[in-house]
Amino acid sequence: MDAGKAKAALCAACHGPEGKASMPIYPNLAGQNAPYLVKQLKAFKEGKRQDPMMAPFMAALTEADMDNLAAYYASLK
Protein backbone atom coordinates (compact mmCIF):
# COMPACT_ATOMS: atom_id res chain seq x y z
CA MET A 1 0.00 0.00 0.00
CA ASP A 2 2.84 2.38 0.84
CA ALA A 3 4.39 1.90 -2.61
CA GLY A 4 1.09 2.88 -4.24
CA LYS A 5 0.71 5.89 -2.00
CA ALA A 6 4.23 7.05 -2.88
CA LYS A 7 3.55 6.71 -6.61
CA ALA A 8 0.19 8.47 -6.22
CA ALA A 9 1.96 11.70 -5.29
CA LEU A 10 2.38 12.34 -9.04
CA CYS A 11 -1.32 11.72 -9.63
CA ALA A 12 -2.48 14.10 -6.90
CA ALA A 13 -2.28 17.25 -9.02
CA CYS A 14 -5.27 16.12 -11.07
CA HIS A 15 -6.85 13.27 -9.11
CA GLY A 16 -6.44 14.83 -5.66
CA PRO A 17 -4.24 13.76 -2.75
CA GLU A 18 -6.91 11.34 -1.51
CA GLY A 19 -8.10 10.22 -4.95
CA LYS A 20 -10.86 12.81 -5.16
CA ALA A 21 -10.32 15.05 -8.16
CA SER A 22 -10.04 18.77 -7.68
CA MET A 23 -11.73 19.50 -11.03
CA PRO A 24 -14.72 17.72 -12.56
CA ILE A 25 -12.86 16.93 -15.80
CA TYR A 26 -10.67 14.43 -13.90
CA PRO A 27 -12.10 11.20 -12.53
CA ASN A 28 -12.16 10.34 -8.85
CA LEU A 29 -10.01 7.29 -8.21
CA ALA A 30 -10.75 6.71 -4.53
CA GLY A 31 -12.72 3.54 -3.91
CA GLN A 32 -12.58 2.35 -7.51
CA ASN A 33 -12.24 -1.37 -8.16
CA ALA A 34 -8.52 -2.29 -8.33
CA PRO A 35 -8.78 -4.59 -11.41
CA TYR A 36 -10.67 -1.83 -13.24
CA LEU A 37 -7.96 0.71 -12.42
CA VAL A 38 -5.20 -1.67 -13.57
CA LYS A 39 -7.08 -2.26 -16.82
CA GLN A 40 -7.34 1.49 -17.45
CA LEU A 41 -3.69 2.14 -16.59
CA LYS A 42 -2.58 -0.65 -18.94
CA ALA A 43 -4.79 0.76 -21.70
CA PHE A 44 -3.05 4.14 -21.32
CA LYS A 45 0.39 2.49 -21.22
CA GLU A 46 -0.34 0.43 -24.36
CA GLY A 47 -1.83 3.38 -26.22
CA LYS A 48 -5.30 1.84 -26.43
CA ARG A 49 -6.50 4.79 -24.39
CA GLN A 50 -4.93 8.13 -25.16
CA ASP A 51 -4.67 11.33 -23.22
CA PRO A 52 -1.84 13.84 -23.61
CA MET A 53 -1.84 14.55 -19.85
CA MET A 54 -1.54 10.88 -18.90
CA ALA A 55 1.01 9.76 -21.50
CA PRO A 56 4.15 11.08 -19.77
CA PHE A 57 3.15 9.48 -16.46
CA MET A 58 2.29 6.13 -18.02
CA ALA A 59 5.62 5.80 -19.82
CA ALA A 60 7.49 5.38 -16.55
CA LEU A 61 5.06 3.00 -14.80
CA THR A 62 5.86 -0.67 -14.41
CA GLU A 63 3.23 -3.36 -13.99
CA ALA A 64 4.04 -3.46 -10.27
CA ASP A 65 3.53 0.31 -10.11
CA MET A 66 0.11 -0.06 -11.70
CA ASP A 67 -0.88 -2.81 -9.28
CA ASN A 68 0.33 -0.73 -6.33
CA LEU A 69 -1.49 2.39 -7.49
CA ALA A 70 -4.70 0.45 -8.07
CA ALA A 71 -4.51 -1.17 -4.63
CA TYR A 72 -3.88 2.18 -2.99
CA TYR A 73 -6.78 3.97 -4.70
CA ALA A 74 -9.12 1.01 -4.12
CA SER A 75 -8.36 1.23 -0.40
CA LEU A 76 -9.54 4.85 -0.16
CA LYS A 77 -13.11 5.87 0.62
List its salient traits:
about 80 residues, globular, about 55% helix, mainly alpha
Quick overview:
With 77 residues, the protein is mainly alpha-helical. The protein has 5 helices and no strands.
Topology summary:
Elements: H1 2-8, H2 12-15, H3 34-46, H4 55-59, H5 63-75
Structure notes:
Helix 1 packs across helix 5 and helix 3 packs antiparallel against helix 5 (63-75). The chain is globular and about 30 Å long. The protein has 5 helices and no strands. It is mostly helical. It starts with a helix and ends with a helix.
- What gap, in angstroms, lies between the N and C termini? 14 Å
Per the principal axes of the C-alpha atoms, what is the gross shape? globular
Helix content: 40-55%
User: Ranges with pLDDT <50 over ≥5 residues?
Assistant: none
**What is the radius of gyration computed over CA atoms, rounded to a whole number of angstroms?**
11 Å
Order of helices and strands: HHHHH
Strand residue percentage: under 5%
The major β-sheet equals:
none
Alpha-beta content class: mainly alpha
The number of distinct helices, counting runs of at least 4 residues, comes to 5
- DSSP E strands, number: 0
Give the rounded overall mean pLDDT: 95
